[in-house]
Amino acid sequence: MSDETLSRPKGQDFEASLDRSDKTVASFEHNQKGLMDHIQKALHGNPTLVPVIVLALSVAVFGVIAGGKFFSAFNLTLIMQQVSIIGLLAAAQSLIVLTAGIDLSVAAIMVLMSVIMGNTAISLGVPTFFALLIGFAGGTAAGFLNGLMVTRLKLPPFIVTLGTWNIFYALNLWLSGAQSIRSQDIDASAAALKFFGEAFKLGSARVTYGSILMIVVFFALWYLLNKTAWGRHVYAIGDDKEAAELAGIRTDRTLVQVYMLAGFICAIAAWSSVGRIGSISPQAFYEGNLQSITAVVIGGISLFGGRGSILGALFGALIVGVFQSGLKLAGVDVLWQVFAVGWLIILAVSIDQWIRKVSA
Amino acid sequence: MMTQEPILKARGLVKRYGKVTALNNADFDLYPGEILAVIGDNGAGKSSLIKAISGAVVPDEGEITLEGKRIQFQSPLEARDAGIETVYQTLALSPALSITDNMFVGRELRKPGFMGKYFRMLDNKAMEAFAREKLNELGLMTIQNINQAVETLSGGQRQGVAVARAAAFGSKVIILDEPTAALGVKESRKVLELIQDVRSRGIPIVLISHNMPHVFEVADRIHVHRLGRRLCTINPKDYTMSDAVAFMTGAAEPPAEAAAA
């Protein structure tokens, strides 16, 4: 059999002329590559470059406008402290967005878990350690619920989390009786809940443990997403779920894990938020969902999934913080801060669209 | 003609979708080291047959054996673990991931020792070296950068990466679904050479194609599928392309000895 196969002429008759065909690789475009092409290609390879540049520029510009006050160690650590909660929510949001989803319920999960932690520790008198564990388990379970509905009921993540946002918010009002837990009451029986609001001095700077926590969470997630197989799978699912499934990834299982991890991070954020605002309020962070999406988008993570770095979301959160702080120190009305952030979002998404059109 | 046992064999496969019977008592045989082309008109049940073999659908009835052992796949993952690799028409590559990442999706290598065991760190160097070696073996190293995203490759190069992925991991059978359908003349030629290259390594190939010249060029045997079952198996040296088209469209009755095979 094989002898006959080998003696068969190679190729079809009509392909005989291929031997004489032009063998040079098409080269017309390569000669004219301009600066913009190089930039586009560089950004395609490293999408976090955009938020890094924007962050550096905005720090420089506000440094000039607002002067020394902006650059003081005190102010820079204050910015870190101010973005620490939205930063954590953005970390959770990034995971979902990388899978081409969106999670409108992150802030609702966080507030619900802070209420649960506070109620079990203070009203029920459960030791704080166990109250925290209940909160972490609750956050993970909330994420599990989201993930289950996305994978089993095949509903779009937008709809699922729009639903659970309302559900968690209502539960939170019910459990808390729409009442805040006062700072003194937390201090009296569960001071550990406020741990992440405490700080250490570094020269004139006041660094809260909450800021450190945010950075640690981001680097842990960076490691997970970039250095482990699980992280590759998250990217592959966001890129093309069908392809990932056919290539042998258990996409539904991974997706559920992603939602659970996001819920768990929201519970960590819940703990940190108690220290940040000093009390437990069912009305807090009502805009947290949208702020986390803002940070993710400005951070260069594609809403279409599979592209961008988790660290981009950290830079995105910091950019928003720098804008707010800088404009405030420059004496600009708060409405113009919102105005500026709005344009940043649109700019960031247009840059993402442009990067995705890169050709080899 | 064939004295060996088939490496992959199916008997009496039935698959119904509601009132539609996609597979109606279909048989299938693939012998070691051969290229078997599967041809059939649209709706003849080729895809369902291939899906049943590659684990993408579970047949309602019938049995499949691989190397004489009965197999029942619930998912493509199980088929792959058993050594049946499928290169889908869509290629199932993740466009934004690198060539290396795509080759190792679902079977990544971890670093040896502490970092790999407890921190599950990937061994990127080892994976890159392996990917480069495999692409080299198949003569695909016109690609400059093993870390470039798959979306920056040409259609033929992508097909090459997908075939290399299927051939790289000690597979027993490779199924290629319409590998040249989206390619130009030159790129098709490269892929056909690649297919013969893979066969010369002793891996049998199932080739699903509508392209008769390509089928007649590379196939050792041709499985003609019609109305949900195997109509006949023919030797491309004994029949012409128009014979094959006549059999698969029902314009001519297959010869008795071919139908029996």
UniProtKB/TrEMBL annotation, chain A:
<dbReference type="GO" id="GO:0022857">
    <property type="term" value="F:transmembrane transporter activity"/>
</dbReference>
<protein>
    <submittedName>
        <fullName>ABC transporter permease</fullName>
    </submittedName>
</protein>
<dbReference type="Pfam" id="PF02653">
    <property type="entry name" value="BPD_transp_2"/>
</dbReference>
<dbReference type="GO" id="GO:0005886">
    <property type="term" value="C:plasma membrane"/>
</dbReference>
<feature type="transmembrane region" description="Helical">
    <location>
        <begin position="157"/>
        <end position="175"/>
    </location>
</feature>
<keyword id="KW-0472">Membrane</keyword>
<feature type="transmembrane region" description="Helical">
    <location>
        <begin position="207"/>
        <end position="225"/>
    </location>
</feature>
<keyword id="KW-1003">Cell membrane</keyword>
<feature type="transmembrane region" description="Helical">
    <location>
        <begin position="295"/>
        <end position="322"/>
    </location>
</feature>
<keyword id="KW-0812">Transmembrane</keyword>
<dbReference type="InterPro" id="IPR001851">
    <property type="entry name" value="ABC_transp_permease"/>
</dbReference>
<keyword id="KW-1133">Transmembrane helix</keyword>
<feature type="transmembrane region" description="Helical">
    <location>
        <begin position="49"/>
        <end position="71"/>
    </location>
</feature>
<feature type="transmembrane region" description="Helical">
    <location>
        <begin position="124"/>
        <end position="145"/>
    </location>
</feature>
<feature type="transmembrane region" description="Helical">
    <location>
        <begin position="83"/>
        <end position="112"/>
    </location>
</feature>
<feature type="transmembrane region" description="Helical">
    <location>
        <begin position="256"/>
        <end position="274"/>
    </location>
</feature>
<feature type="transmembrane region" description="Helical">
    <location>
        <begin position="334"/>
        <end position="355"/>
    </location>
</feature>
